[in-house]
Amino acid sequence: MVTPTPIAKLEILAFRAEIANPVVTSFGSIPARATALIRIEDVDGAHGWGEIWGNFPIITTAYRARLAATLLPGHLIGATIDSPGGFTAELARKFHILKVQASEHGPVNGVLAATNQALWDLAARKAGKPLRLLLNPDAPDAVPAYGSGLNPGDCVEVTERARAEGYRAFKLKVGFGADTDRKNLQALRAGMGADERLFVDANQCWSLEEARAAIPMLVEAGVEWFEEPMVATTPTEQWWTLAAECPIPLAGGENILDRDGLQESIDWFDYVQPDIGKWGGVDGCLGIARKSVAAGKTYCPHWLSGGVGLLHSAHILAAAGGAGLLEVDTNPNPLRTEVIKALPGIKDGAFQLGDAPGIGIEPPVDDMRQWLESHEVFS
Question: How many CA atoms lie within 13 A of 172 on its CB side?
């Protein structure tokens, strides 16, 4: 066991990269890719990285970086942290009144989640172990993955590119009208091999009646999960109704932002998908992952941002066990590809994690400076 030492330095970096083709969802589009990273370093020089969730609306990332710079330094610098989970739970208690007073639940939760990630990455690097092996000594070196975020206008071309990269499972965005959705489902299915899998994500866009109406189309296309058919705040009885009527397994969880809600949702979701950047960080997501697997459900972490959060998600998936898949965004995002470029990539449908300590990479900040919007340092 490595003895913890005081935190000496905190860095907060915000990035924004313009892209040619926006990411399209049923609720709007994302015209650029943005992310905020935090780096925490102790007096021995050991450090760890975390990522603050923020992709829609695109302006939220820069704001959350500033919020982190306001909230964290006074609590982190000089602190000796025995437990990442215990420390961030105490921070959450201290920030609770702020969240209520300012109605800032999501932004504050994002800052806490990134802090928890960075502290776990630091602990694993200091122990000289990959994060997944610190969490579970029997964790595998790779996790199954799927290509996510297929836009309605170019889903066939993007799927072909993802297939060439090694993916064998794909997720299409739906909710753009029955004609468009059906056309895309048929086109994707026509080009898929017998060993390939197809999922859909409605991004919360339908009512119960609309979700019901989509079921025959999805069954015909051989869809294997139906993600976020309704808004996450839909009453429990409507989720039970849809689960009882839908022959396709339901998936979701990224927008259920508290432990009790996620635990309850395990009852009707077959695929449980919390987002490590929106709530809970490593401790929160690993806890839900293990409960999901124990309940016979499948844990598939949600992630659609930069490379640091993606790697944290991958290590938690490996540590949790089960038959889950890692979500890897197929849309252009240099804030993801630059971070993970040193890893082996996808092989036979699986994301290779490597054997370096922590999350396995050092974000190449120098190579990313063309997208850097702000960089604050506290010591």
Answer: 28
